[in-house]
Amino acid sequence: MIKKNYRKGGIGAVMDEYERAATEFKNLVGNISDADFVKIVDTETMDDDCRSVQTIVSHVTNSGFGYANYIRDWFEIPKRSPERKLLSRDEFLLRFDNMLAYTSETLERKWEYSDDDIQKVKMIVRWGPQYDLEQLLEHAVVHILRHRRQIEKFAAKEKIFIQIIKNKA
Q: Distance from the CA of 115 to the CA of which of 62, 135, 167, 169 falls in 20 to 30 A?
């Protein structure tokens, strides 16, 4: 069994789950061929962020920076996120890890916020609702999970192939 250092507090727990979802997402994407990574799979969608694995991972990564920036705005922490763009596989792998580190840095000293402190943080997001700190982070986790499922559905419909590579331990 791998020993894991868990963060303290409710916000720490959500960040741990965010990283877990991110690891699963990266592992899934890592098992997709280069050709299938860029292949336009959904030609009927009206959402440009959901046409291929490449557009999905770019969207998820760019959104992750956006979530951290909502929090940084609330706490008046300077932002330094990269420009939104379509990412190559190598750019995705690097930028996705950078996004998680950026989020973790954003949340430093907030891991053990009380429920009252969490609920005082109010952010109106561009798609309409108002979230508190925990709700926004939970949205970020589920956002990764929803798009992981979307990629898995592409494979289930045989639009892409996922090669399962088992680690030898």
A: 62
- Tell me the C-alpha to C-alpha distance, in Å, between residue 157 and each of 73, 88, 95, 151: 41, 24, 29, 10
C-beta separation of 160 from 32 below 8 A: yes
Residues 70, 85: Cα–Cα separation, whole Å: 19
CB 151, CB 29: distance < 8 Å: yes
Write out the E strands in 3-162.
Answer: 123-124, 130-131
Q: pTM for this structure?
A: 0.92
Angstrom distance (rounded) from CA 66 to CA 3? 31
Return the number of other C-beta atoms located less than 10 Å from residue 125's C-beta: 14
Phi, psi of 32 (to 5 degrees): -110, 135
Q: Which of 134, 84, 146, 130 is nearest to 107 (CA)?
A: 134
User: Cβ contacts of residue 121 below 8 Å, gap of 6+?
Assistant: 71, 74, 75, 132, 133
Provide the 10 A C-beta neighbour count for residue 124: 10
